[in-house]
Write a structure and sequence with these properties.
The two termini are 25 Å apart. With 118 residues, this protein is mainly α. α3 crosses α4.
Length: 118
């Protein structure tokens, strides 16, 4: 399966989880974390992952690790609902998960300055 098709499936999954959490939890005003943006980003998760794929090689192991890391982050949501993926924070969570997965799984990775340009 081509990488762009996998990215489309991943983006659809991540978007559905973020939207479902946002409907259940609603906007969290008092408990804002560093991952939260002031407004919902205008770029879709699919377009965002395609943009990241231009700079980082998103292979199967990286995409799977990204989902595992996002799941690990969200396991805390029972104790701290601000960690739940929502449209306000999912782009930052995805990028953080990609950076960690890429640094862990790849022999060659970029420094943090390069990732910040994505």
């Amino acid at each position: 399966m081509p990488v762009l098709v996998k990215i489309a499936h991943m983006a659809e999954l991540i978007d559905s989880v973020a939207k479902a959490n946002h409907q259940v939890l609603g906007p969290i005003i008092n408990d804002v974390m560093q991952f939260h943006s002031c407004a919902i980003p205008t770029i879709s998760m699919h377009d965002y992952l395609e943009h990241v794929a231009k700079f980082v090689c998103l292979e199967n192991d990286l995409l799977l690790a990204m989902l595992v890391y996002i799941d690990c982050i969200t396991c805390v949501q029972n104790h701290r609902p601000a960690f739940a993926p929502s449209p306000f924070n999912i782009h930052f969570m995805a990028l953080a998960a990609i950076v960690v997965a890429h640094k862990f799984n790849s022999d060659i990775f970029f420094n943090n300055t390069q990732y910040s340009k994505v």
